[in-house]
Amino acid sequence: MSVRAIVKSIQDIMRQDTGVDGDAQRISQLCWMFFLKIIDDQDQELELMRSGYRSPIPEKFQWRAWAADPEGITGDTLLTFINDELFPRLKNLQITGDAGDRRRVVHDVFEDAYNYMKSGQLMRQVVNKINAIDFNNLTERQHFGDIYEQILNDLQSAGNAGEYYTPRAVTAFMANRIDPRPGEIFFDPACGTGGFLTCAIRHMRDHYVKRPEDEEKMQGALRAVEKKQLPHMLCVTNMLLHGIEDPSFVRHDNTLARPYISWEQKDRVDVILTNPPFGGREEDGIESNFPAHFRTRETADLFLALIIRLLKPGGRAAVVLPDGTLFGEGVKTRLKEHLMEECNLHTIVRLPNSVFKPYASIGTNLLFFEKGEPTKDIWFYEHQVPEGQKAYSMTKPIRFEHLQGCIDWWGGKERKGREASPQAWKVTAEEVKARGYNLDFKNPHAVADDHGDPETLWQDLRAAQIRTAALRDQLKNILAEALAR
Predict the structure, then answer these.
(1) Residues in CB range of 305: below 8 A, 6 or more apart
(2) In this predicted structure, what is the pLDDT of residue 315?
(3) What are the start-end ranges of the H helices in 50-183?
(4) What is the pLDDT of residue 87?
(5) What pLDDT is attached to residue 1?
(6) 3-class secondary structure, 333
(7) N or C terminus of the chain with fewer C-beta within 10 Å?
(8) Pairing mode of beta strands 269-274, 311-322
C-alpha cells in the first residue's frame, strides 16, 4: 500500500472515533502519534551510527516497545496505557539546559498534547497503519513529507487553525528572494507549522549544502519560536521529517513576552522570514515590554518593531504584513518611519486578497528590507491573479510558478536593472514622508474601470426605479383583486 493510501486509511479510521471532533483535533491526534514513530525510527538509526547513543524516551514508552507489535495491547488496556502512563511520563520528562538534549523536544511536544481517541480498538488499527511507514527509508519519508504538507494545508479549513499556515508558494518565493545560507543565523519568531523553516532548509540544501559540514552549519544556525501548542507540535514533527536531528531550537514560547530591551547584541540574527499573526490582540501587559512609542496590542506591529531590532547590520528580512500596516496611522506611522530610518525597505510585493482564502480575505504584502542603511527608494510589484482566473481558492491556490514574473523582474541578487512595468513602479523616500509614511501606493499603471457617463447612469437608474414602482403597483392590484373574490 502506498504512503498516501496509508494516511488516507488512518484518517478514515479516526473519523469513526467519537472522541475526535473536526480537522484540528484529527490533525493534532495524527501528529503526536506520527511524532513518536518518526523519532523512534530516527533513534534506532542513531543507535547504530553512534556509540553510546540513548533515546530521549524511556524504554517502556518508546514506540517499538508498545506499538510495533501488531498483536500488541489494544482496547481499554491500550487507552489506559496511553492516558495514564505514556502521556504523564512524557509531559514530565526531566530536561537539562544542555545543547542537543532531545528530551526537551519530547517534553515540549507533549506538554499540552492530548489524546482525543476514545476507542482502544480503533487506536490499535491506527497504530498498525502507522507501523507500515518506515521513516528511515528516504523515499517513504519524502512521500510522507509531501502528504504531511497536505495535512498542514488542511488547516486552512480547520477554523482558526488556518492562521498557522502560509501558502507554500509564498514561503518558497520569500526564501528564494532572501537567499539564506548555511551558518547564517535564521530566525522565525512566529513559526507556525514551520513553512518558512522548511523552505529555507530546502533552499540551502539545493544551492549551498555540499558537504556534511555545510549541513551541520545550517542546522546549528536555525532558530524559531511558536506560541501555540498545535502548530508547535506540527512544526517539530515537520523538522524531523526534513532530517533535522535536533529540533529543540523550535521553542514553545511567546517571542513578544520577552522585554524589547533585553534582546542584546548576542541575540542578533542574519535572516528573518516570518508571517506574524495579524488582526489579533496580544494579552494584557505584553505591550508594556516595548518602548512607549511602539506600544500597541496589535500583534503584527509588535513583531515588526522586534524584527527591526533583532537584525544584525547587513541582516535581511522578508515579512508578510496586511494592508492596514501600509496605510495605518499612530503607532503604525512611527513604526514605518523607524523601519525606513534603520533599514533599506527596497521592495514591497502586493498580493491579491484571495491568496490566504479561506482563512483570511484581506490584502497582504511582502516587505523585503535590509538593516543598516536608510531607505532611499521603494520598488512596488503588484502580483496579479493568472489570466482567466478571477481569484485564488482552495481548488486553485497560488503556485510558485505564478510568482516567476516577479523573480524575472527582480534583477538578481543585487536587484540591478529593475524597470517600471504594468506591474512594477518606484517611489522615493521623500514621497513616502510627504504622505505621512502612508505606504499604500496604488499601481499608477492600472487602467481605471470605465463605469460610464454619470448623467447617463443617473437617467438609467431613475428609469429603472419608475419601472420597479409600476410593477409594484401592478402586483398590489392583482393581489387586491384576488382577495376581493
Answers:
(1) 260, 290, 294, 335, 338
(2) 98
(3) 63-66, 75-80, 87-91, 102-110, 120-130, 138-154, 168-178
(4) 97
(5) 65
(6) helix
(7) C
(8) parallel
CA dist 135 and 152 (Å) reads: 18
Helix (H) or strand (E) holding 428: strand 424-428
Does 1.20.1260.30 match the CATH number of domain 3-136?
A: yes
Q: Measured between alpha carbons, how far is residue 234 from residues 24, 356, 359 in Å?
A: 11, 20, 18
Look up the CATH architecture of domain 155-434: 3-Layer(aba) Sandwich (3.40)
Number of C-beta neighbours around residue 78 at 10 A: 21
* Cα distance between the two ends of the chain: 74
Residues of the chain scoring pLDDT < 50: 159-162, 449-450
State the cell numbers at 316: 535581511
- What residue spans of 111-265 are helical by DSSP H? 120-130, 138-154, 168-178, 195-207, 212-220, 229-241
pLDDT at 479: 84
The dihedrals phi and psi of 219, each to the nearest 5 degrees, come to -65, -35
Predicted local confidence at residue 356, as pLDDT = 80
Could you tell me the residue ranges of all domains in the chain? Answer: 3-136, 155-434, 451-485
